[in-house]
Amino acid sequence: MAYQDVMLHIGGKWRAAQGGKTIDIINPATEEVIGKLAHASQADLDEALEHAAKGFDQWRKVSPYERAKIMRKAAALLRERLDSVAVLLTTEQGKPLAEAKAELNGAVDVIEWFAEEGRRAYGRVIPPRLPGVYQLSLREPVGVVAGFTPWNFPVNQAVRKISAALAAGCAFILKGPEETPASCAELVRAYVDAGVPAGVVQLVFGIPAEISEYLIPHPVVRKISFTGSTAVGKHLASLAGKYMKRATMELGGHAPALVFNDANLDNAVNILAANKFRNAGQVCIAPTRFLIQEDVYEPFLDKFIAKCKAVKVGNGLEEGTTMGPLANDRRLRAMDEFVSDAVGKGAKLRTGGKRSGNKGYFYEPTVLTDVTPEMRAMNEEPFGPVALFMPFKSYDEAIAEANRLQYGLASYAYTHDTGRATALAGDIESGLIGINHHGLAVPETPFGGIKDSGYGSEGGAEGLEPYLITKFVSQASL
C-alpha cells in the first residue's frame, strides 16, 4: 500500500477540508515529506457534529448483537489488511515493522473483545418495597463522544476509544494524530467498510487546541476521551468540567522499575530493556527510573548497558532494525536537553547521549547514572530512549523514590520474595503494576493511571463503563 494523502472522514465520505488547507506529513526516518493531510476548518467540524448527532440516533437503536457483528467484521478487515497498514504505520511513525504489526494485531484483539463485551452491558432488576412495582436499572449509551489520540500509537490509542464507544452504542468523532494520520485513517476505514452507518465514526485533523476547544464545549458532545501529556490533559479536563462533560484521561507517566537483590537479573534486564527501547522509548508506560538495590546494582547496570549497545537503530522498514527514530525534531531536542541538564548536574553518561547520524530523528539508547531528584529528567517525562539509574539500600527508600512524583501510571518490580511482591502491589502508587513480567495493556485488563497520570480506564470491563449512563426506572402496574 503506497503512502497517499490523508483525507477527513465526515458523514460517510472521505474528502478534503472545505477550505482546502493541508498539513505536511513527514517520514521521521528520512525527514522527507511523504504526503499531505487535510486540515479541518470550523465548517468541517460543524458538519461532523451534525452527522454525529444523526449517527448516534441511528446506532443507539442497533441491537448489541448486531453491533458486535459489524465490529467483528471490522476486526477481520483490519487483520486482512495488516501487512500493508503496518508499512504505512512504520513509514509515518518510525517504529520497526515488527512493532507496527504487533500494534495492529493488538488493535484487532481490542475490537473483537469490545464487540463481545458490548453484548454484556447488563442492567439489573432491583427488588421493590411495594407489590406491583418493577424497579429497573438500565444501561444506555452516553451519546456523541469526542476522542483525542496521540502519535506514538496511532492505531492502538484510537482503537480502544472507538471500540468501547461503538460497543456501548455511542457515535464517535476522532481527532486523530497529525504526525501519524494514515494508519489511524485505515483503522477508521475498517469500521466504515464493515458497515458502521454514516456519521457514527468520523475522523478530523487540524490544530489540536482549536479542535478540542471547539468540540468539548459543543452541546452535541457528551463525553471526551484524551490520551496525551499531563499538561494538555489538565487543560482539557478543566474544559470538560466547565461544561459538565464526562471525561477519561490517560496522561503521562514516569514509571519506576524496582529491582531487588533476590531478583532474576537476566530476566529483569531482558524484559526491562526491551520495554525501555520499544518505540524508541516513546511509550507512556515505559520503565524510566531504574531503582536497583545496591547489592546487584553494578551487575544489573553492566548487563543493561550491553543490551543498549546491542540495539540496532535504523529505519523501521529495514530488516534487523530494533529501534526506529523519534517522532520529530522536537523529541531530538528534548533528549539533548535532558541529557545536558543531567550531566551538568553531576550525572554520568554511561552510553549513548547523542543523535545517531545526521538524517532522520535517530537517537542512541542512553543510560545515565548518578542521577538525583534535582535533574529535569528525574521529574519530567523523558518520553524517549533515556534510562535513569539510581541505587537504593532499603525497601522503604525504594518506595519513597517510586512514589515521589505526581505521576502514577505504571510501575514495575522484580523480586522472588512473595511477601515483598504482595507489599509492593499495595505500597506503590500507580494504576498499573507489573511484577516479574510486563503484562500490561491487553484488551481484557483495565488500563489507566492515578494522580497526575489521569483517571478512568480504557481496558477491560472497566473500559466500557465511561460510555454508558445508568437510568433508573420505577414502574407500578395499574
Output the keywords.
Aldehyde Dehydrogenase, Chain A, domain 2; six-stranded mixed beta sheet; 22% strand; 37% helix; seven-stranded mixed beta sheet; alpha/beta; single chain; Aldehyde Dehydrogenase, Chain A, domain 1
SSE topology:
Layout (H helix, E strand, L loop, with lengths): L7 E3 L2 E3 L6 E6 L4 E7 L3 H18 L4 H17 L1 H12 L3 H21 L6 E3 L6 E9 L2 E5 L7 H13 L2 E5 L5 H14 L6 E4 L3 H8 L5 E7 L2 H13 L3 E5 L4 E5 L5 H12 L10 E7 L3 H14 L18 H16 L3 E4 L14 E4 L16 E7 L2 H8 L7 E5 L3 H10 L4 E4 L18 E2 L12 E9 L2
Parallel strand pairs: 7-8, 7-10, 8-9, 10-11, 12-13, 12-17, 13-16, 15-16, 17-18
Antiparallel strand pairs: 1-2, 3-4, 5-6, 6-20, 11-19, 14-15
Helix pairs in contact: 2-4, 2-5, 2-6, 3-4, 3-6, 4-5, 9-10
Characterize the structure shown.
- With 478 residues, the protein is of the alpha/beta class.
- The chain folds into two domains: 266 residues, Aldehyde Dehydrogenase, Chain A, domain 1 (3-Layer(aba) Sandwich); 190 residues, 3-Layer(aba) Sandwich (Aldehyde Dehydrogenase, Chain A, domain 2).
- 37% of the residues lie in helices and 22% in strands.
- The strands form five sheets. The chain has a seven-stranded mixed β-sheet with strand order 14-15-16-13-12-17-18, with helices on both faces.
- Helix 2 runs antiparallel to helix 5.
- The chain is globular.
- 52% of the residues are buried.
- The model has no long low-confidence stretch (mean pLDDT 97).
